[in-house]
């Protein structure tokens, strides 16, 4: 039996046409009602009309109710399926193939027409698992260093019989910690600070059948439900997500629709680490403008980036306001893209919208209208692939550090890629009165592992990490992470002077970790604009159809409030932008950092 379509538009259209003919509303020709009947005849006509409308309306209502019933049944089954996957020993030990349990149960669930029938089904289905003895001497971890993203209160919201709820509550509260076939944090000889999932990937076909599309949905939903440390604050109304997305996953008509709806799903968690990965899907879409966009006062403004020659060649100037793309006004473009974008704060949400404004179709160029000094300018804008922009950057490498005058040096830390460069940089800034440390980019990971002796000496930094408890899904434990005393294998000279760390919404993840660590250094301030608000290890998981999705897997709290998820790195001074300010100088944020350095020297 194929599930009834969740789109009732055609049926409503038919009903509307009938109603139009009977009532004179809608598009029915007025000629139909030219000969007005007398009152008695009119009453008879109304009765006949009602006799026609009522059965059709009731039929539509029944279909809608059946659709709601199917969605509710599938949503409840998804929640039960996920709970047992992580908390029932027989499932955790893989004595039951849990994917098959999902796939084989769907046909039966879709035939169920009322709540009582569903409760009977799920009771029978659950009773097939071995009954577990509960050890009441065991209990869930608790204390000040522990928090839960799932607890017995969630079980109370399951739409299942009371006896099952009680058994589930006992399984949860008195859970016997043991390994789980589907979840692990060991990788060879290493113990990770996050868990990963050992699932059948079902890479092919790239457009899975309905059952496997729904499997992708319920896998993702349950992973976030139990293993996302920010679920309460950054996954709003998570219990409602299943009902919202089950119809969309069922009705995804082809490969692209399936990927689009999964992308919308990942946007339901407000996380700057919420990435969607599918190479084939993105290959022809990733065309890029040769500039960044800043979101200022509700407008998308061109910001100078590292492609100055490409901007000049096309007549684009910093401070230009984006008005329309391919004759679509920017608000319409924003509204369309917004459903597919996310971020830990509004700054990143608009960063991502701006990044994707030029990817709304596969063309290599677009018609762009901008406002410059009050005038509208329309032109064709050439777009570039990542490869083209990468080659441009290779040919136009900026200086890794430079003397800005007055004893102030500027260091592009994120561009330093080897130990030799790092040592030369520290040598060059030894006599600097102030160093502006650029962090509006993503640093090279190996460099972040060796730079500390030259800027911190023997100083160690610390942060509080909350990691999932492998044996208690939904539970997180805190531990204080002390950086090991830096090992100076490069014999780096140490810079002890004033440091100004420059950040904005492009400062994300590892960049935020570096900036937050630098903030703990004496004689250091952080200035700029709100950062991305997402650090801590992220993790990709795979889903049917060869797609992947990521989320922040570890909760990090910086020492002394230097970092907080969503808020980002704590600023000592905020830099506020305007179009006029951006037009006044090539890099207003850097100029403000320089002016701050001059002020501090007085």
UniProtKB/TrEMBL annotation:
GO MF annotation list: endopeptidase activity; serine-type peptidase activity
InterPro entries, per database record: ClpP/crotonase-like_dom_sf (IPR029045), PDZ_sf (IPR036034), Tail-specific_protease (IPR005151)
GO biological process: proteolysis; signal transduction
Pfam families: Peptidase_S41 (PF03572)
A cellular component annotation (GO) from this entry: outer membrane-bounded periplasmic space
Residue span(s) of domain Tail specific protease: 363-576
Source organism, top-level taxon: Bacteria
Name listed for the protein in its UniProt record: Tail specific protease domain-containing protein
Originating organism: Mucilaginibacter conchicola
């Amino acid at each position: 039996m194929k599930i009834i379509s969740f789109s009732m538009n055609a049926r409503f259209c038919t009903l509307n046409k009938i109603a139009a003919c009977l009532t004179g509303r809608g598009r029915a020709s007025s000629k139909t009602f030219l000969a007005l009947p007398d009152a008695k005849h009119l009453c008879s006509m109304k009765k006949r009309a009602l006799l026609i409308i009522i059965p059709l309306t009731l039929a539509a209502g029944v279909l809608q109710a059946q659709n709601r019933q199917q969605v509710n049944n599938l949503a409840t089954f998804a929640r039960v399926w996920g709970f047992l996957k992580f908390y029932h020993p027989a499932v955790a030990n893989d004595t039951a193939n849990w994917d098959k349990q999902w796939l084989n149960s769907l046909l039966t669930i879709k035939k169920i027409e009322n709540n009582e029938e569903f409760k009977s089904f799920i009771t029978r289905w659950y009773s097939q698992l071995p009954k577990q003895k509960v050890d009441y001497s065991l209990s869930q971890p608790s204390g000040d260093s522990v928090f839960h993203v799932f607890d017995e209160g969630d079980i109370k919201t399951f739409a299942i019989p009371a006896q099952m709820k009680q058994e589930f509550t006992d399984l949860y509260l008195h859970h016997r910690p043991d390994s789980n076939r589907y979840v692990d944090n060991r990788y060879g000889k290493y113990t990770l600070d996050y868990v990963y999932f050992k699932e059948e990937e079902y890479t092919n076909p790239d457009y899975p059948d309905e059952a496997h599309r729904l499997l992708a949905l319920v896998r993702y939903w349950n992973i976030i439900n139990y293993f996302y440390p920010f679920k309460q604050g950054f996954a709003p109304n998570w219990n409602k997500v299943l009902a919202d997305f089950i119809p969309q996953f069922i009705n995804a008509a082809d490969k692209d629709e399936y990927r689009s709806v999964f992308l919308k799903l990942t946007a339901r968690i407000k996380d700057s680490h919420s990435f969607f990965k599918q190479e084939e899907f993105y290959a022809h879409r990733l065309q890029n403008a040769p500039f960044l966009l800043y979101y200022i006062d509700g407008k998308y403004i061109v910001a100078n980036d590292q492609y100055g020659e490409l901007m000049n060649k096309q007549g684009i100037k910093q401070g230009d306001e984006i008005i329309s793309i391919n004759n679509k006004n920017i608000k319409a473009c924003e509204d369309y893209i917004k459903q597919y974008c996310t971020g830990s704060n509004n700054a990143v949400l608009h960063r991502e919208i701006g990044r994707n404004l030029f990817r709304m179709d596969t063309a290599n160029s677009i018609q762009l209208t901008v406002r410059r000094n009050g005038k509208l300018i329309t032109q064709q804008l050439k777009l570039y692939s990542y490869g083209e922009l990468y080659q441009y950057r290779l040919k136009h490498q900026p200086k890794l550090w430079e003397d800005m005058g007055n004893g102030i040096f500027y260091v592009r830390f994120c561009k330093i890629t080897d130990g030799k460069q790092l040592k030369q940089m520290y040598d060059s800034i030894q006599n600097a009165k102030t160093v502006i440390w650029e962090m509006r980019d993503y640093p090279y990971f190996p460099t972040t592992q060796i730079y500390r002796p030259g800027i911190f000496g023997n100083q160690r930094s610390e942060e509080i990490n909350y990691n999932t408890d492998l044996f208690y899904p939904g539970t997180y434990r805190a531990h204080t992470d002390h950086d090991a005393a830096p090992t100076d294998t490069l014999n780096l000279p140490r810079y002890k002077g004033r440091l100004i760390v420059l950040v904005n919404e492009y400062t994300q993840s590892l960049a935020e970790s570096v900036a937050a660590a630098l903030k703990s250094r004496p004689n250091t301030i952080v200035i700029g604009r709100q950062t991305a608000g997402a650090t801590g290890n992220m993790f990709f998981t795979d889903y049917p159809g060869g797609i992947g999705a990521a989320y922040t897997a570890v909760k990090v709290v910086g020492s002394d409030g230097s970092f907080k998820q969503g808020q980002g790195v704590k600023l000592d001074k905020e830099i506020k932008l305007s179009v006029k300010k951006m037009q006044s100088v090539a890099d207003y944020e850097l100029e403000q950092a320089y002016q701050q350095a001059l002020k501090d020297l007085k």
